Amino acid sequence: MQDFCTQACMEKYDQMSNNLPPPVSTAQCAVCNNEKVVKIEVQLDNKIQKLCSPPCFAAFKFVNKLNADKCDMCKKYFDKKKVENFSVFYDDSPHNFCCKTCMNVYILANRKIVPCNWCKVKKYNFDMIKRVVSSGQILMMCSLNCLTLYKVSINAVSSKRIKCDMCNGVAQAQYHLTMSDATVRNFCSYQCVMQFQGQYSKSPPLTFSGSEPAPVPT
């Protein structure tokens, strides 16, 4: 539940968090001085400059030597040289903001609770360490300690010779399957993997990985 000091603040939060377009308004353009529909807003020196068109925006940037960037929350432009850097990395790309308030609203609107792939502790996704392994699997770790333990386990599982869970041959594990009970089955060849999966053809699909196994904390 969110608390607001005024109705206007609540409406502004609803607009920003739901990515709604700003209401249409008219104002005097800061460049051509004509009364027109506002198309672009620029935050400069604690003031909002309203512009009517891309040509006026280009002229405004040239005159003010503006290194403009667009806020990913309120959609206003701001000068990156004059504003403290507020940015987050989300959905595989960086997102920049004009102020801390916009950054916080963006995080509130996009955060979700996810479990750590190692210790299973649940945290918000923005508080997790994200890692994409060579198999394409996305891992979310709650701490550097869990990430380190995962890497140690990967090296231990991949380097030792173990018994294949299908043919019972002893060899270096090449493929791994994570079962529904979180245990890991190891296989010496892709053929053994397919034969093993054939036994579960009517069951939910298992999590498969090749060179990057899915270890279980010990």
Automatic annotation (TrEMBL):
Q: Taking every annotated instance into account, which residue ranges of this chain make up the domain TRASH?
A: 29-64, 71-110, 116-154, 164-200
Q: Which InterPro entries match?
A: TRASH_dom, ZnF_MYMT-QRICH1
* Annotated PANTHER family: WITHOUT CHILDREN, ISOFORM B (PTHR45736:SF1), ZINC FINGER MYM-TYPE PROTEIN (PTHR45736)
Q: What is this protein's name?
A: (California timema) hypothetical protein
Originating organism: Timema californicum
